[in-house]
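user: Here is a favour to ask of a fellow structure person. I have my own habits and do not want them to colour yours. Could you put it straight underneath, so I can go through it closely?

assistant:
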Amino acid sequence: MFRRSIICLSLLLSLTAGLVSAQQTDTKRVTYYAILLDGKKIGHTIRTRIVTAQHVTTTETMSFTLHRFETAITIFANVEVRETPDGKPLAFKSVTRMPPMAPQMVEGVVTDGKIQATVTNGDQKRQVSADWPEGALLNEGLRLLQRRKGLQAGTSFTASVFLPDQMQAVPFDITVMEPEAVDLFGRVVTLTRIRATIAGPTGEITMTDYVDADFHALKSVAPLIGMTLEMVTCDSQFALSPNDVVDVLNKSLVASPVELSPALRRKSLTFHLTPRTKQQLRIPGDDTQTVAPGDDGTVRVTVKPTAIPAGAAIGYDGDDAEVLAALKPSQYVQSDDKRIVALARKAVGDATDAAIALKRLEKFVTDYILETDLSIGYASAAEVLESRQGDCTEFAVLLAAMCRASGAPTQVIQGIAYAEQFGERKNIFVGHAWVRCYVAGRWVHLDSAMGHHDTAHIMLGQSDGPNQLLQLLTAMGQFTITRIDAPDGQPLPDETAF
């Protein structure tokens, strides 16, 4: 799951950077920013704004590097949007590169309220047509809205921000706060703090811009995996200087209060989650995972063993929108790829019982991926088909694609799962990805990366690819597991080894 946090880092920076743009009449303006994670420089952003009589073009070029153990991973991202001078969207292009993976690109034009876009993953291209989200804004439109609202403390409004890499709009609740003194690498200036809030899966996520009187964001701050992410304006020499080494591994881990044996993980378990802040946790539930909020702000999550109904057929003929969406191919889950369809048929064989077919698919993917490689970016199912390498993310997208190709509505699930040892840490919950399938009116879970799904999995949300992971990753590090109850409802004692 570590690699997903890196891609979400670029999305998060794009969100905070896009909330407020510079107000100026120059034909061209270039601004450099240093990207910091918990005070250490990990990369840079170059923002360019070009104004002509017909167009306003805003470009953000970003590069940053993070480490996991000895593995360094660098992301390169470029987002360009073109608008009319009065803020109407015209075109957008987003390119993300994480060597050695092929670039991932979304390029589109907006005409008469319609989007015509091309989504590219390596040599895989997909044409997308969609309506422009009502009221959604790009950079210039957002800047003009902010100008109209002004910088008076207490001003609040909601803005719908279109994210090119996600091809969707995200609503932000924006509030203007009081001015305050801000340190910009030794230069202290008075700036207005603007707070932007979005709803996340486990609570609200708050991001902050510090802007000058011309609405130019000189500093942006956002949470990520329990750490503080910042983008601070600076000169080009410092922005392009060498980066520090930052290992985000420990920040994404959640300690278990007790050791959990394989036998215990085959039984129902109840986890008591305690938020690190005063915000209420919002954890999703389904037929496997039930959620009960406590009076003291804690949340009790009970996970039952997955049981696939025997004798059920694969398929769905209902009208539930969520289930129907879980049948469709997507940018990263290419269930309509002929090679994936053929592979799914091979894995399922002559099985007609859903329980047998899905377990065959789970086992097939477990055996199919031959190499775990921490340097691989968030690969699509088609890429995993070719490379046969990756970690939990790649197991999940390939399994999801093969299940959908077999007719089973399937979602890629993001959450945390128990590991007896991870690196030098023991009895720890780590970021993880698996799938759930809709069978005979209920959701059941499968995990090819671990070989099977057990009850030491806590679901935080679902996502087909890195574009939708931002809110999930900000949830990491925002809670602790303070207690685990056995099936009889009694807490497992800390000193007991199972």
